[in-house]
Amino acid sequence: MINDEVLEGQLPEFKEEAPVPEVKEEVKEQEQKPEQAQEPESLVGKKLRYKSGDSDKELKEKYKEVRDEKHLSKIGDTLGQNFEIREGWLEVDKLLMGERAMYYPQDWRFRIRPATVEAIRNWSTIDDENVLSVDEVFNEILKSCLSILTPMGPLPWGNIHPWDRLWFILLIREYTFVEGETAIIYKEPCVECDNDVEFKLISSALMYDMPDKEVMKHFNVEEQTWYINPQEYDLSWPEPITLYLPTLEKEANIKAWMINKLQQNRNAKIDQVFMRFLPWMAPKIAKDLTIAQRQIREYEIKFKSWDEDMFSFMDDVIKNINILPSTKLITKCPVCGEENTSEIRFPDGISSLFNVSRKYKKFGKK
Ligand SMILES: [Zn+2]
Fold first, then answer.
1. Could you tell me which of 110, 162, 281, 360 has the fewest CB atoms within 10 Å of its CB?
2. 133 is in which domain, residue-wise?
């Protein structure tokens, strides 16, 4: 499992939220997502629900249409379906992202390609216990397999949001192993009838806790920022606050800054609470450590200027505008119909994510 207990708890909590999404049964997801992505405005703040109902034929039909039209949608479908194009770049249909697509500029396009043999080889040497190594390989896969196209030119993979990281990883995985030889499935006894229920880890099964509708009026889709006036909430704070969406790049640069700081001085104090706010307060953090130091210092001064009321208000703000991937998988028991949940996990470790199953008999037991 991914956690970020690196450097004896020196890493901020926000990292931890990134790669652990919630997963639910894929069929229901298919019914919801296309609709949501087509009309993001009307779905602002709407939560993805577990129980979408099995009767919604219209949505199913719509999904099928979209899928037939844009064959990309097949990625994210059940592993095991045949897919002809397997090499080269393939545009990611934003419909697959559901309402999370709103948190990227509309004119951005994402393309993925299958993981290379080399990347897969690196992946198989991953040390599941070592979070930094997991992080590195995750990023390595994104670096070589994800490209972002914008009207201003291509952007590096680090411009995606932390909450989408595992989603892209799984999508690339599904594209790489499109024949489905490596579906990650595990079984648990049904809470109701004790028969085995199957949980499947695929991109379309990921679930997210989205911001509520009532707070969405503060999100500026064009600017991709949160703009909040504390006075609207009866605080005497003089000026409105602008918050920016966290990105993998920003988090990586903050992490590099922290590691550097701790290397220089093992007893350096890093304010964990401030670290939670930083990726939202800063539009960017430089890769250059000297510049990063200056930037972070500046935000820290701002952060420290908040009085108690302002701090607890901002704490609420961050909690409410964050997108939280859930750690749960949900699936329905095929025998009694009871819904079962399970913690998302990688039964054979994270390294098994990109391991190709052997086509030969194993030599010996070691
Ligand atoms: Zn059951």
1. 360
2. 13-185+348-354
User: How many domains are there within the chain?
Assistant: 2
Run of H or E residues at 116: none
CA atoms within 13 A on the CB side of 325: 28
Could you list which residues have their CB under 5 Å from ion ligand 1? 190, 192-193, 333, 335-336, 338
* Spacing, Cα 190 to ligand 1 middle (Å): 5
Report the separation in Å between the CA atom of 23 and the middle of ligand 1, taken as the mean of its atom positions. 19
Indicate whether 60 belongs to any domain. yes
Q: What is the pTM of this model?
A: 0.71
Q: Is 83 exposed, middle or buried (0-12, 13-18, 19+ CB in 10 A)?
A: middle
Ligand 1 centre distance from Cα of residue 193 (Å): 4
What number of CA atoms fall less than 13 Å from residue 6's CA on the CB side? 19
The answer to whether 208 and 33 have CB atoms below 8 angstroms apart is: no
Report which of residues 109 and 88 the model is more confident about. Answer: 109
